[in-house]
Amino acid sequence: MSTSRVFVGRLAGCGVFDPVGDRVGRVRDVIVVYRKSGSPRVVGLVVEIPGRKRVFVSIGRITSIGSGQVITTGLINVRRFEQRGGEVRIISEMIGRPVDYVDGSGEGSIEDVAIEKNRAGTWEISELFIRRPKPGASPFSRGSTSFAKWSEVRERNLPGQAQSAEHLIATYSDLKPADLANTLLDLPQERMLAVVGELPDNRLADVLEEMAETDQLVILAALGDNRSADVLDNMQPDDAADLIAQLPQAEGEHLLTLMEPEEAEDVRMLLTYGHDTAGGLMSPDPIVVSAEATVAEGLALIRKHELAPAMAAAVCVTLPPYETPTGKLLGIVHFQRMLRYPPHERLGGLIDEGLEVRVDTSAAEVSRILASYNLVSVPVVDADDHLVGVVTVDDVLDHLLPDDWRSHEADDDLHSSSVPKNAPTHKGVL
Question: Residue 102: which domain range?
């Protein structure tokens, strides 16, 4: 095993491989236990395996740490990680904690933690990377940094003092919303809400869209009305409508009054449709163009960074006006077809007709149409053939999957076939 010092902040997200080089997962945290004397001892890693499931890998099953990767013996118990009393997660809990220097020379906060294998063959915390408070009130100084041995500092947890979530957010800044949602739900609730409080509104909106409704409601209740409205403004209208529909009517109406008028209008419109209809599933912001628009213009619209891939799969061609509800829907043009024609070609000559559903079409029928015609999105029209939105395949999947498909229990059921019959049930034995 490598004896080089490893900083946990750099270890986060590194690939975990078996002896033949196949990827097992990614490191999401390092677990330590405190001792009466000496530095905390490393007992294992939290590893995210396919399916966004986090499992515990004992340090005894790690054969190498270094060079941006971790090598295991290849034996992984896929039972979901559950933190025990006495265990501390370095990234989720230790980084950001305030400390005092034992010699009285000042204070600071833990910005990173180095782990190292000692002569006895045990991995332990070898050094802390400490950031000192910035001198004076200058906004241009972040304060000095220094290294310290574990014995040189003492962690300080004042009554009522929440741990800083800033470092945790920075560590997980590259996570996709679905992965960050799972990471937050794995944290103790107090720590999770502290991190939620520091997330930007748009980032939190993306994360909430990836959570089960019960988890969304817990977080929304902790935000307060004004922040909740700001986050709902940043959510996709169909997701915001689904969330508001779970609230008591008076509370939902109050949040709608606090939202931006345009965003609230879209949500109110979606709430008028049944949740299991095309109208209830759709997004009210499709890409709309005129028949005179060119291929170059269509491709420019679908290149927008904020567009989800399914929404960018096709553009809708309508008569004016071009804001929903639009004029009559003429058809759609798939992006693959646009790629086959010169930039000056008019989109009106490339449309596919007859690929739309009514607002009252059932979710089951929408899914059948998507599957029958190999579509990832389908336009939704009202009784007068005015375009009012688009249903994407992910909207349908969210509706068709079990309500608890994002939960730990559902994930365990999906992966239960991966656990050998004689696999030990204790999470620390692999």
Answer: 1-168
pTM surpassing 0.90? no
279-to-32, 288, 341, 400 alpha-carbon distances in Å: 50, 18, 33, 15
409 occurs within a structural domain: no
- CB atoms inside a 10 Å sphere around CB 197: 15
Instruction: Return the pLDDT at 230.
Output: 94
Q: Could you tell me if 380 and 357 are in contact, meaning their C-beta atoms sit under 8 angstroms apart?
A: yes
User: Please, what is the average pLDDT of the chain?
Assistant: 84
CA atoms within 13 A on the CB side of 79: 15
Cis omega before residue 402 (within 30°)? Answer: no
Q: Where residue 77 sits, what CATH number does that domain have? A: 2.30.30.240
CATH number of the domain where residue 210 is located: 1.25.60.10
User: Measured over all CA atoms, what is the biggest interatomic distance in the chain, rounded to whole angstroms?
Assistant: 79
Of 162-166, 247-251, 291-295, 309-313, give the lowest mean pLDDT range: 162-166
Residue 37: pLDDT band with limits 50, 70, 90: confident
Please check whether residue 306 lies inside any domain of the structure. Answer: yes
Scan for tokens 């405190």, then name that residue. 34
Boundary of a domain, candidates 168, 202, 218? 168
Convert the pLDDT of each residue in 260-285 to its tens digit: 999 999 999 999 999 889 999 999 98
Look at the alpha carbons of 296, 298, 301, 305 in this order and tell me if their dihedral is positive or negative. Answer: negative
32, 83: one domain: yes
Residue 249 lies in a domain: yes
Domain count, the chain: 3
Beta strands in 5-67 (DSSP E): 6-7, 15-17, 23-33, 41-49, 53-58, 62-66
In a domain, 82, yes or no: yes
